[in-house]
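One thing: could you explain this record?
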Amino acid sequence: MKSGQPVEPTHYENVTVLIADIVSFTALSSKSSANQIVTLLNRLYSEMDNVLDRYEDVYKLETIGDAYCIVAGLNNRERSVRENAKDVIECALSFIEIVQKLDMSDQVQDKIEIRVGVHTGPAVGGVANPSMPKFSLFGDTITTTGLLEQTSRKMHVHISGATHELIQDAFETDVSESIAVDCGPQKGKKKVASYWVVGKKRGAGGSSGAGAIGLSSIGGSSAYSHGSSGAEREKGGYTVGGGSGGDGGSRAVPSILTTSADGAQGKDRGARQVSIQGMPFSRLNKNMQ
């Protein structure tokens, strides 16, 4: 790029993406001072960042408000899709444990809860804006991950059938409702099977993450944290685009993730940052309230 040469797009056959957010973050923000919110997010995300350091090919995504995202499978083509998926699930379980133990002594409430969605699928990567070079990921995989997060229970990890196929030998799971993903006017909607990750199977070997946890179960609430009505939940289907998030109000799913141009070049470059592009103004404004 420095020499003015174009950067050719790259097709990734399979990457595993995780999106997490804080339940009722807007309500928490309205009751907290700016210093309290910044302190809370810095404390939470710093601990999450420490988890990523255990893994070979898992990259942090730049946070927008309470949204925290990671992706595995960008760099090491010798590492299997199955290993990458297991790494991300281990990260997800670690994130749940971090939130359960998070110091809230200087906050207005004594605990927070998060939602987590994980999906594995193809994506296209490339530098979308040479004047502000960032490596971007495009595709339905990002949309599906966002929907799984939106429809997740509080303090649970909600995964797609594709991810489930890759991790079921190492993790206990429960069947969830299928979700309806809106793939655009030409592709229409498709049903995606989904599951809850209960915990790691006893005796299952760890992945690349040193000190990976072996929870027997996670989460304590069976109530959904998104804004759907009970009748809608009983239908067992959710649609992207007009769905309600846990904080109330319409929330679209981000469809593009980006990382700095050198962010996916290897762990020895330091912090690996990926940002969300295309986040709707409704979400941005809500996080700034």
Remarks:
- The chain has a mean pLDDT of 76.
- The longest strand covers residues 114-127.
- The CA atoms of residues 61 and 274 lie 4 Å apart.
